[in-house]
Amino acid sequence: MASELIEALGELAKEKHVDEFVLLDRLEQELARVYKQILKLDYEARVIIDRETGKIYVYEMVGIGDEDPETGDYEEYEEHDVTPDGVSRIAAQTAKRVINDLVREAARASIYDEFIERRGELITGTVLQSTDDFTIIKIRDGIEAELPHFDTQRNPGERNEKPANEHYQHNQRIRALIVDVREPNSIAASGTRYVGTRPSIIVSRTHPDLIRRLLELEVPEVYDGVVEVKSIARESGSRSKVAVHSRESNLDPVGACVGPKGSRIRLVVSELRGERIDIIPWSEDSRTYVANALSPAKVSNVYIDEDTHYATVIVPDDQLSLAIGKEGQNARLAARLTGWHIDIKSASLVSSQGGIKQKVESLIDDDETEDEESVTMCQYVSPDGMHCRNHARPGSRFCGIHADEEGAMDEEDNGLLI
After folding, report:
1. What pLDDT digit, counting tens, does each position of 219-255 carry?
2. Topology annotation, domain 119-207
3. Residues 127, 114, 185, 45: is their CA dihedral positive or negative?
């Protein structure tokens, strides 16, 4: 029976592509744990499997001398043979579980080695299963990925990589971006739920780089690097803005991405389930870039403050709501795209409260002179040097929030404060 066990283990190891010696070592460790529980041993157990005959020996490692109070170890151990009857039967049952664990670990290690360098790549697969918390996507035979969409409030340690407007059906083809690969050695220590049975590869449908990869797929100029995607701002499932730049002066980067009659960008929009995508030209000039980012709104003027990184944008009255967008979405995406804090004002507001333009220009030119009649912005400056962006009250240099500063500054000017 013993020799038959060794032969069977050798055949299984060869069939499952597992090292036979690694299998035997793991089997000895697992059997030691099992027999300590079965035999209710007071000390640790040690199992030895004879590599030639396959005979199994179980020993209790009895400590000799005094126990170390910190580590609980002994200086010496004495082996007591406690090998029970039917040891091979239990070994066969344990071997099956050990082999399955080894095969699973080997598969995870192989997947990790292959896909850890492919983070940021686009993959195509089919939906195998979709639950309330995640969707399993088959990349190829034996390789699966997880698209998590947990409720992050109830599960703060999890992810949500699915747009809210998307729902998946069995066998549906889907494209996603590889964002992470779980390391096999860290899986056991992870606090993630059911992580041992979930795929190692994590993909996303919300990441901004998904649009970049889809453009590379549909636009040859982007794939070749002639057209460069400079920046992406995205609210997945709703709307995105993409800034592009051409390395060739005679090539229109926006036209290349949109394609004839919108054919190229339409394929990207279709893959993103109707998500609206604005392609805008990137510019080295910050004023031009901010104006382009607010597209489709028409911008009259842009004034920037390099020190605070604020951009004040003047738009015609009929373009104000379009520039801001529904619930501020257009302005919010433009700010993310450009990296500027954007303040949008209508032309009528500027003309009725004159001086905004002059004030902004004075900030740009670092002009220290201040015309008392042209000041319409609150003059409050916080301890960290940030200017208040509210309008001053009529006849005052401060807004309603900082109105108390008026008297304090007057007293300081009159020498009443020390």
Report:
1. 999 999 999 999 999 999 999 999 999 999 899 999 9
2. OB fold (Dihydrolipoamide Acetyltransferase, E2P) (2.40.50)
3. positive
